[in-house]
């Protein structure tokens, strides 16, 4: 049985490539790419910061128009790594009144697992591997839904891995923004496999693979021709492993201009989709899975379910006291 988001609340994710706002029935994505160059310089560039502020200004207008209560604004890989990440977060709080929490890879993994497993009809008591391929990092979480996962910090069986393996990061490292040669694509995939194999994930015991985030949902949308994007058609869509392999090869052969005109592929992902698709495909391969289940719900859904529900319960309690 799946859970619905409570009404009237929203959460915001400041990711390496995308900024995302999610509320019940609303999902808005901007592509400021604040993580551009962070892997190389260790800092958020001034132009990237300006794009980020412009994206947040659009979110602020939406929040006011819909009278939403923002229950959380979280920063992930780029803000974790950038030396000036805290300064950017302070600027956001001064301008918009939102306190940005730079969450750890562990917390990101836990929220992603909760959001994905709460909204998909997955077999109970069967292991599932959640993969969230972001711009700067990839979170891998494995467990058995519907039990909420609590990652182990030390000792025992490790249940999550946060890897410096993202679509923006690997695009910059392997130069795959343009048309990608066979040799370069092979080098990219081998590089991805090296990182994944050293992650500590029990690959051949992974069970079902659920792909969360923009890379996974974009690949599902491309395969099924979902244009314009419709989360109801993408959420829960099953993408065969062989289709993932084929998409990596086809996307790599395309020029950047050809990718930009590909239906279902947002322009903000056109130059990083090859790296993102390669990461997602190698995850499914190493897990020995026959398919990837796409999930439109993840980190922000988990955050809203955790905090939005608490806020609603407190509100109901206050009303009851007044009666």
Structure notes:
The protein is an alpha/beta fold. The chain has two domains: 9-104, ATPase, nucleotide binding domain (Nucleotidyltransferase, domain 5); 106-299, Nucleotidyltransferase, domain 5 (2-Layer Sandwich), CATH 3.30.420.150. 47% of the residues lie in helices and 17% in strands. A six-stranded mixed beta sheet has the order 8-7-6-9-11-10, with helices on both faces. Strands 3-2-1-4-5 form a five-stranded mixed beta sheet, with helices on both faces. The longest helix has 24 residues, at 299-322. It is globular. It starts with 8 loop residues before the first strand and ends with a helix.
Query: Could you give me the name of the CATH homologous superfamily of the largest domain?
Result: Exopolyphosphatase. Domain 2
User: What fraction of residues sit in β-strands?
Assistant: 15-25%
CATH architecture of the largest domain: 2-Layer Sandwich
Summed over residues and divided by their number, the pLDDT gives a mean of: 88
Q: Provide a count of the helices.
A: 13
Structural class: alpha/beta
Domains, number? 2
Radius of gyration: 19 Å
Task: Detail the poorly predicted runs.
Answer: 150-158, 312-323
Give the strand order, joined by hyphens, for the main sheet. Answer: 8-7-6-9-11-10
Outline, from the CA principal axes? globular
CATH topology of the largest domain: Nucleotidyltransferase, domain 5
Please report the first level of CATH classification, the CATH class of the largest domain: Alpha Beta
For this entry, what is the oligomeric state of its chains?
Answer: single chain
The biggest beta sheet reads: 6 strands, mixed
Distance between the termini: 33 Å
SSE pattern, N- to C-terminal: EEEHHEHHEHEEEHHEHHEHHHEH
Count of DSSP strands: 11
């Amino acid at each position: 049985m799946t859970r619905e988001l409570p009404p009237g609340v929203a959460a915001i994710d400041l990711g390496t490539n995308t900024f995302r706002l999610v509320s019940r029935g609303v999902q808005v994505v901007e592509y400021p790419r604040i993580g551009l160059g962070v892997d190389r310089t260790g800092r958020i560039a001034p132009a990237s910061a300006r794009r980020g502020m412009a994206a947040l200004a659009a979110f602020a207008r939406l929040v006011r128009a819909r009278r939403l209560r923002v229950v959380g604004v979280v920063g992930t890989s780029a803000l974790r790594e950038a030396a000036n990440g805290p300064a950017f977060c302070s600027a956001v709080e001064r301008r918009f009144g939102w306190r940005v929490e730079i969450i750890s890879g562990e917390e990101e993994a836990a929220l992603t697992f909760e959001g994905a497993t709460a909204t998909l009809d997955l077999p109970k008591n069967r292991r599932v591997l959640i993969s969230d391929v972001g711009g700067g990092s990839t979170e891998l979480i494995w467990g058995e839904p519907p039990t909420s996962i609590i990652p182990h910090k030390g000792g025992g069986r490790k249940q999550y891995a946060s890897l410096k393996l993202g679509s923006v990061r690997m695009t910059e490292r392997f130069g795959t923004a343009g048309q990608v040669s066979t040799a370069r694509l092979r080098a990219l995939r081998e590089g991805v496999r090296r990182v994944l194999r050293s992650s500590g994930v029990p690959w051949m015991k992974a069970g079902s693979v659920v792909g969360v985030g923009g890379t996974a949902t974009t690949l599902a949308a491309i395969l099924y021709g979902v244009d314009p994007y419709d989360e109801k058609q993408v959420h829960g869509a099953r993408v065969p492993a062989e289709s993932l392999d084929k998409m990596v090869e086809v996307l790599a052969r395309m020029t950047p201009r050809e990718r930009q005109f590909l239906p279902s592929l947002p322009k903000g992902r056109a130059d990083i989709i090859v790296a993102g698709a390669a990461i997602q495909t190698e995850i499914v391969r190493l897990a020995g899975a026959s398919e990837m289940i796409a999930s439109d719900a993840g980190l922000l859904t988990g955050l809203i379910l955790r905090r939005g529900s608490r806020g609603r319960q407190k509100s109901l309690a206050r009303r009851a006291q007044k009666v």
